[in-house]
Design goal:
The complex is a heterodimer of chains A (143) and B (53). Chain A has 143 residues and is mostly beta strands. Helix content of chain A is 8%, strand content 29%. Chain A has one helix spanning 127-138, and strands at residues 3-9, 30-36, 50-53, 69-72, 75-83, 95-103, 111-112. Chain B has a domain at 2-38.
Chain lengths: 143, 53
């Protein structure tokens, strides 16, 4: 089942000036979104979506823009609504889930993101590009 | 790129919790999946030295 899970700030939550779409600057209440094809249950009240952080000391020079750590965010789900399409076949999503969240700051522990996995899917199935990448990765680094 | 991420999530039945730019030209986008994620190793990515032992 393909679910679009949207985490959205409840009314009157602090920090609204900072919640903007990067490409337009428009204000938004959307905090995060998941594209969920797993079979795990929906988020429930109390769930905290993760936030992703870049710790300078842990940056992989090959991926300088990447986040390196994650932790539970300061937002906590308070209410969950689900919507299903009128016609179940051929839709982009089988369910849209809106998780309303309140700002509830915590000092959550920080965890390193696991090592990045590169597979054929990383190249959209382009076998040639994938093989090239594997071969280059196997080349000894020049010092 | 986002379509590739969606295809991978669909294929591996995963929950994609974050997608971000990496500033790497070859692999420009990171996809973060919820939970333990291990993709099967491709034939092209096996360690031949280990295989010969």
């Amino acid at each position: 089942m393909r679910k679009w899970i949207v985490f959205r700030a409840e009314k009157r939550q602090p920090g609204w000036q900072g919640r903007k779409y990067a490409h337009t600057g428009s204000l938004t209440k959307t905090l995060a979104e998941h594209y969920d094809c797993s079979d795990r249950g929906l988020p429930e009240p109390g769930y905290r979506p993760s936030e992703f952080i870049q710790v300078k000391e842990a940056i992989d020079p090959n991926f300088p823009g990447s986040k390196t750590h994650y932790r539970d965010s300061d937002w906590e789900v308070t209410r969950v609504e689900t919507y299903t399409p009128d016609i179940a076949i051929g839709m982009g999503f089988d369910m849209i889930v809106i998780c309303y969240c309140k700002y509830s700051p915590i000092n959550a522990p920080l965890y390193p993101l696991p090592e990045r996995q590169v597979s054929l899917d990383s190249f959209g199935g382009d076998q040639e590009a994938y093989i090239r990448w594997v071969q280059e990765a196997k080349q000894p680094t020049e010092v | 790129m986002q379509q590739q991420m969606k295809n991978a999530a669909k294929k591996w039945l995963k929950d994609t919790v974050d997608t971000e730019e990496t500033d790497n030209d070859i692999l420009p986008v990171d996809c973060v999946f919820e939970g333990k994620t291990e993709f099967p190793k491709s034939y092209y990515n096996t360690d031949t030295d280990a295989d010969e032992e």
